Amino acid sequence: MHSPVPESPSSFAQLAISPALQEVVAELGFRAMTPIQAQSIPLLLQGYDLIGQSKTGSGKTAAFTLPILDRIRVSARQVQALVLCPTRELCGQVAREMRKLARRHPGLQVLVLAGGEPGRPQAVSLESGVHIVVGTPGRTLDHINRGNLDLTTLRYLVLDEADRMLDMGFADEMEKILEAAPQNRQTIFFSATFPASIEEMSARYQKQAQRVTIDEGAVTAPSVKQIVVEINPENKLSALHGLLDQYRPETAIVFSNHKAAIAEITKALGEWGVSAAGLHGDLEQMDRDKVMAKLRNRSIRVLVATDVAARGIDVADLDLVINYDLPLKPDTYVHRIGRTGRAGKEGIAISMATPRERLKIEAIETYTGSSFEREKIQLPKQEKALYQGAAMTTLSIGGGRKDKLRPGDILGALTGEAGGLDAKDIGKIEIHDRVAYVAVAQSLGRIAVERLREGRIKGRKFSVDWVR
Ligand code: ADP
Ligand code: MG
Predict the structure, then answer these.
(1) DSSP E strands, 334-418
(2) Residues 150 and 229 in one domain
């Protein structure tokens, strides 16, 4: 029977995927397929190998995840799909998106295998049986070599951000993994660029690869408003103050090229009353995770970072990206501003440039094929307090996925009879392996900590702390 509802050319409804998956995309608010999804999902459902390219934020994760989920057998606790990503943060981001899409696949296990974490618990999880592995090439190969990760049942091998994995020096590991995978698998490459090295890898390891390239003319997302303000170096801090006062972003990231400037900028923000945190390369992984969780759940407003520290950081839809220093290379500029204006929302990117940097600005314009709006900035006469506190505060709970904690359990403990809070005051709940982060309205933080400490979650006691 034909559906009575007319289908737009890129409606999910025209896809031959299960009704459960159709419901999930509708629940997640995906109204239409993005172009990369519309072109690649049908090919993947037909079993083709694929080499795909489209800009950041265009929904590539769902493009490969929906076909995988459509075919996965949850009853078989064996690794059926392996997704390789360049960094630990990107692995986390992809795993989160996959779990969201797998909400109608109860029991489906997605495991992240990334460095910076002990390998033993990862091996134990593999032993207990998982369906999908998302890993960095190094750690994944390590588990293959140790005999912890068995690929004989693998049906899908995805290389996400393949060009970046090569840039990061993972060519050897990628090839060894491609060789360790069984022949009758589907191989999917996603990449922002196609250098010769990727073409070679595709020719060697893919069969009849179908190419999908979504060329939107410019390299940058058209939904990002790009502004440049000319400023003398000594006035940059003052200009930052003025910009935050003017734009009042809910969430923003400030990029500097200098590690030493991160602390200075973060301190100034604190003095103005803007809730902020700095991210620099020397932070312990655990502290990085905390900072990122706080940005995602709106417990801090502004993140200050260098490019290295921000590599692969996992936040979408920031309102504002500020380039406190112009990036050294135009492609870094594109990476930076790709963090705003995702999936149809308009974002704003403001770059501070000194009068001597006009040529750099032109180089970026040539590279992106778009031009900056030039704006003048009024420097504030004095730096009045801005008082832009965050809406939420973050609590950590000493239990996670491995303790079988689910978001509903924590929400239940906070809003149930013992908790007494209102669900509208509870924000994002993130469950990690051994820890969970929950955002609660700033003014209710203390009450929430008390109630959680007094009460139980799922009938058990867990430690509860503020994440400062
Ligand atoms: P990419 O890998 O291309 O950079 P992602 O897969 O990370 O992009 O997706 C970016 C965001 O867009 C995610 O938050 C995702 O949930 C959302 N998204 C994906 N597909 C759609 C869609 N069809 N409609 C609306 N939002 C979508
Ligand atoms: Mg991606």
Answers:
(1) 347-353, 373-375, 392-397
(2) no
